[in-house]
Amino acid sequence: MPSLELVLLAALLLGGGSAEAAQEHILFSVIQISSFANQSWAQHQGSGWLGDMQSQGWDSESGTIIFLHTWSKGNFSDEEMIDLELLFRVYFIGFTRETQEYAGQMHFGYPIEVQVRAGCELHPNDTAESFLQAAYGGSHFLSFQDMSWVPAPEGDSRAQSVCDLLNQYEGIRETTHRLLTHTCPRFALGLFDAAKADYKRQVKPEAWLSTGPRPGPGRLLLVCHVSGFHPKPVWVMWMRGEQEQQGTQRGDILPHADGTWYLRVTLDVAAEEVAGLSCRVRHSSLGNQDIVLHWGGGNSALLTLLWFVATGSLLVLLVGHFCLRRHSSNWKALAPAVPSPESPTRADGQGPRTLRHQVYTPQESWIKNRFLKKWKTSLNQLWGR
Ligand SMILES: *[C@@H]1O[C@H](CO)[C@@H](O)[C@H](O)[C@H]1NC(C)=O
Ligand SMILES: *[C@@H]1O[C@H](CO)[C@@H](O)[C@H](O)[C@H]1NC(C)=O
């Protein structure tokens, strides 16, 4: 009975769909970074994050939450946000005072750097985990577990002392526990719902190539810039044909102000081996259409100049050839301007986002590579290497 099969199939598909929708890991976290330069000077930074996306900031001057997006309040009412704001304000005042008071007693020498990360993670199976971890001087110091403060295994006796002190305050423990296990998951769910359009948006990367600082004599640093993509996961690799180049070095994925991401992937390679290399970019926004940029540039100003001359002569020859044959259909493949090997890149490594992809036709690459090889050979002969 095909109709029953259809119903079953539909149920299966729909079921699969909703199961997939529930398959979201939702992570909300707040981050605190506090610096105490001396007995009288302290500075706090606070931020709220939905996964990789910053959703809130903290204005420590006025003690108020900065809502970075229209959806930054999730489904909480203004009153509820004001209550939370007040709670954080009181917390920061208390934290500053207690730290300054106990720093001497507990032998914490200035400057003091404290980092706190707290939040909750909701799993697809409707379970939630909460966490609060604090670091002192960049190392794990203590955490909050099952209603009490626990020193980090790597923490010293001071971590134990701080926990002993904190554990005396029943009220603080209860509030912390409630915030982490009750308020956080509720807020995270509402926030995720409100942020969905932004959170799930697919923005295609732009990519371009340049050279970096010379790693050594006879070597080149090829740089593949990938910019403006969302979401964050991306795969970028230097390739020779289908062969992944093991020397590929991946930088950190850095944020743009608009919430998209930037990544720089480099390859240190012998100058005579650049021909045939390409940078391949795979990202969810691209579907199966990877971006492939072929390395087509020379490696020095002189080479670039010679390259221009060579291409010029080539064009003249080809124009002659094509005019004779009255063929003009291939013009398009030859017309694109010669790509400069030193693509403009700002000193901060983040090139302008307006640069279009440099995608060459195989024909162009082939011609370029042939000529490049020739010029390089002559050049090497000229300079005796
Ligand atoms: C405390 O540190 C701040 C910031 O470094 C500095 O400007 C200030 O002069 C210091 N005050 C004292 C009393 O050392
Ligand atoms: C917000 O959404 C969450 C999850 O959907 C829900 O549990 C909560 O009751 C909603 N409202 C408020 C004010 O938290």
- Alpha carbon gyration radius: 29 Å
Low-confidence stretches: 1-22, 298-302, 327-367
Q: What is the percent of helical residues?
A: 25-40%
- Which molecules other than protein and nucleic acid are bound? 2-acetamido-2-deoxy-beta-D-glucopyranose
> Which secondary-structure class do the elements indicate?
alpha+beta
Residue-averaged pLDDT = 81
Got a strand count? 17
Provide a count of the helices: 7
Tell me the major beta sheet: 8 strands, antiparallel
Strand content: 25-35%
Q: Which descriptor suits the 3D outline?
A: elongated
Q: Calculate the terminal CA-CA distance, rounded to whole Å.
A: 78 Å
Q: Which sequence of strands runs across the widest sheet? A: 4-3-2-1-5-6-7-8
The sequence of SSEs as H and E is HEEEEHEEEEHHEEEEEEEEEHHH
Descriptive notes:
The protein has 385 residues and is an alpha+beta fold. It is built from 7 helices and 17 strands. It has helices at residues 2-21, 78-105, 157-167, 170-199, 301-325, 331-334, 362-383; strands at 26-38, 41-50, 53-59, 64-67, 112-122, 128-136, 139-145, 148-151, 206-211, 219-229, 235-240, 243-244, 249-250, 254-255, 261-270, 277-282, 291-294. The strands form 3 sheets. The protein has an 8-stranded antiparallel beta sheet. Strands 9, 10, 13, 14 and 15 form a 5-stranded antiparallel beta sheet that branches. A hairpin with a 2-residue loop joins β7 (139-145) and β8 (148-151). The model is unreliable at 1-22, 298-302 and 327-367 (pLDDT under 50). The protein binds 2-acetamido-2-deoxy-beta-D-glucopyranose (2 copies). One 2-acetamido-2-deoxy-beta-D-glucopyranose binds at residues 75-76, 186, 189-190.
